[in-house]
Amino acid sequence: MEQADRADNFLHMIQRLRRGRLKVYLGYAAGVGKTYQMLLEGHRLKAEGIDVVIGLTETHGRQDTARLMEGLETVPRLQHEYHGIVIEEMDLEAVISRRPEVALVDELAHTNVPGTANPKRYQDVDDILAAGIHVITTVNIQHLESLYNTVERGLGVAVRERLPDHILAGADEIINVDLSEEDLRQRLEDGKIYPEERVKTALLNFFTPSNLEQLREMALRELASQIDLRRREARDEEVPPAPDQVMVCLSSRGPNSEILLRYGSRLAGRLSRSWYAVYVQTSKEAATVIDAVTQRLISNTLTIAKQLGATVFTYKGEDVADTILRFAKEYRVGHIVVGSPARRSFWKQLTDGKGLVHRLIDKAKDVAVVVVDTASVPAMRTPVEIVGEEAPAEMAGPKVHRAAMNDLLGHSIVFWDDPVSKDEAIRALVHMACRDLPGLSEASALEAIMERESEGSTFLNEGLAIPHARLEGLHRPGAALGVVRGGVTGEDSRPPGYIVLSLTPDARPEVQIEILAEVSRAFQDRTFLKAMDGAVTADDIRDALALWTGTRREAR
Question: Fewest C-beta in 10 Å: which of 48, 340, 495, 500?
Answer without folding.
Answer: 48
